[in-house]
Amino acid sequence: MRVSCLQENLAKGVAIVGRAVASRSTLPVLENIYVGTDDGRLKLAATNLEIGITCWIGAQVEEEGEISVPARVVTDLVNSSPPERIDMALNVRTQTLQIHCAQFQAQLKGIDASDFPIIPTAEQDKAIHVAPDTLREMISQVTFAAATDETRPILTGVLTEFEGASLTMASADGFRISVRKAPLPEEVPESFRVIIPARALQEVARIMGDQEDPVEILVTQKRNQVLFHMQNIDLVSQLIEGNFPDYRQILPSSHVTRTVVDTGEFLRAIRRARIFARDAANMVRLQISGESTEGPARVRIVAEAAELGDNVEEIGASVEGEDIEIAFNVRYLIDVLGVLNSAQTIIETTDATSRGVILPASNDDFTHVIMPMHIGQRG
Amino acid sequence: MATKWPIIGHHHAVSLLQREVARGELAHAYLFAGPPQIGKQTLSSILAQALLCQGDDPPCGDCDSCRRVVRRQHPDLQILDLPAQTRLLGEKTSAQHVLKIETIRKVQQGLFRRPLQADHKVILIPEAHLMTTAAANAFLKTLEEPPPYALLLLTTTQVEDLLPTIVSRCQVVPLHLLRITEIETALQRPPWKLEAAQARLLAHLSGGRIGWAIRAHEDSSVLEERQETLETLQRVLAGDDLERMEIAERMARLPDQGMETLAAWSTWWRDLLLLQSGADNGLTNVDRRDELARVARVWDVAETYSALSTLQETISALEHNVNALLAWEAFLLSLSVSGQPAESRT
Ligand SMILES: [Zn+2]
Q: Which is the CATH superfamily of the domain at A252-370?
């Protein structure tokens, strides 16, 4: 192999695929980055067997070839190179990649490319197209509510359902549920559901950058992998096996109190309450009351810490239904309010021990459910 | 019927597994149990090949998947031994004696990601008895509810050291020592193509362990060491107390070599016992028949029997970490000199 490319492009490519390099694995080759020629371009790839990222960069190919080289070394080397042309040459016999840039020259001992796992790349014909902004927003609205605790592998994934002309993503970690729906530009020929690791979706959002073309999504025939095809980048994720809990059954179907607040005002008040709640099991109490002789409808946000004292703040609201006091984990409220994308927030509650529902007032495509905390349990 | 699997011996196990592969009726977990170096790992690896193969006649041995399994580079095959654990946990090699619960947990997490290249995901644990109790208990969860594509292959030389709950959730495939003639025939075929005499020698010395025979063929030092070991025995038998004490001291210093020496000596004495009882075939040390026959005429059966049982007691004492020097001295000094009982020496 003999290839030349710009340092800037190579550094960018290595940084993108570098996100999928395995840190510790039983297969040494997974700590490497695949470097090979592909139809007049340079192909870079890495996989940790959960996520595989392939990236193509412009290059001048003089001789075809492929190899895999240690990710950490090649990343450091390329990042510390001057912004000039980089020449690479592979010695097939010794499986050594020679990298030459400006004044310096380095030899990287590689592992045969045939030991590198085969990462599928896109065949565009059966892909489902999703607008990049929509996908980015969906990912931000569901992945944070997936479990990070690996003892429940299924909940570390996002249930992704393609049905008719709509796409639904749902996540749950045992304390909260996040569900986001979006219309698809065209109907899928056959409905299906898969569980995609939340980590993989977060990577998709990250490497999507400011891409404007639709992202193409396709699931491999064996239903083992999902592939996201972007401009010059493919991300493949292994799917998670198992049955995702039926979240629809857990979604509250009715409520007693419906409260509407200004999202920004509510979020700022909650953030201030957090300073106190940190020392009190993260608990914040919402005292919701309708218009009465005591004053207009409002939400009192109360956080108490035994050592620090307490913090009480009132914000205006419109309240339908009975007054209620309910407590939530302050972190969960901050998480959801940060991704709501609506000027007004709806809070639907039933009683102090039933799940609360957080909804955007501007549309009905997002639903978030949070388990309340027992008011007696503050520390 | 599938192609012939490249396995020497174990016909019953192989045909059972071939049948299950062909019918798609595989169990989720297999436990291959038997003595060391008889081909347990080879068999489990071929089974992994058969499942991951992309060819028409699995295991074809020729497709990308089959080749990766041989190179231990298949992304859907995880081999869980101590070196793998070292990599997985990022620990020092010297810290590895058992398979830890952290390792099992990591593997379990990966198992819920569907396979990458094949229809199956295979986890191979070559020395399953190295799992700690905590690790084994964690692994039970996977054995009880494996994902549909998972195949768990365990091999062990010490099935009695495994949790009974582990054993009961695996399809146990007991494997035995091979017949000497099976090994002798195999060694004369490719890829080894040994001369008949050499094949016969290695087959007999192996005691039914094909792995040992292949190692002895590939690494000439194995036979040289055995030669030395048996010469040491001759020196012991002919030597005085001083020489025996020197040898005891040397053996006590090198525990591994000491154990191997005792294992080789026990085959020599067993051969002696065979010759003394009039049996002429079944000898292990076929290349030392003349020497054995000479000694057989001088020693009587009772002496040989007593030497052999003292030797076995010494092995078990050393396994239980007694003072090695004392054990070796007691053993060597108890032996007769060239057929004279120890008491009658001057
Ligand atoms: Zn094959």
A: DNA Polymerase III, subunit A, domain 2 (3.10.150.10)
